[in-house]
């Protein structure tokens, strides 16, 4: 099977990129997919998570490389069915390389005015760096499940950025993510059923887009 590369990127920090990348990779692993998780962020959030993950738990193949001049070689050498790439915040060279290598890029957006402004900035990077045929998918991240802001955000994004896909459901701002991630786990290994359902739904929605 031809490998598929999913980048997780946003020029703004704190949007949940690493959380989403880790959970997507682990959801894929749960379904029997061979997957590599590539950390291109110098802060090494994915690496830190992997270092404290219990040995008894199945773990994606984690690879770290934040060098924009060799990342393409690193990714090309990986032979897994799915490659999930976590990118750093900011408009760095490595982000441009990730966009150029990806088949689909997931852009997490929090329901705030600052994040909406950031979409326009990131759009310019997409236009300059993305390869032809790249599918851009906007997803709400870290939103309050009791608020209507995520619905308003979805409507706004659909109107302002009709050229991009937008997932109806994203991930909420739940304590379970922070708790499990701090232990080198994911919500898939925790007790929050709603968190489990939303990350599995996110993975399956993205998997459907990859196989359209």
TrEMBL record:
| CDD domains per UniProt | ParAB_family
SUPFAM superfamilies reported in the protein's UniProt record:
P-loop containing nucleoside triphosphate hydrolases
Name the Pfam families on file.
Answer: CbiA
Query: InterPro entries per the record?
Result: CobQ/CobB/MinD/ParA_Nub-bd_dom (IPR002586), DNA_Partitioning_ATPase (IPR050678), P-loop_NTPase (IPR027417)
Q: Which residues form the CobQ/CobB/MinD/ParA nucleotide binding domain?
A: 8-184
| PANTHER family reported in the protein's UniProt record | COBQ_COBB_MIND_PARA NUCLEOTIDE BINDING DOMAIN-CONTAINING PROTEIN, P-LOOP CONTAINING NUCLEOSIDE TRIPHOSPHATE HYDROLASE
Q: What protein does this entry describe?
A: Chromosome partitioning protein
Organism from which the protein derives: Salinibacter ruber
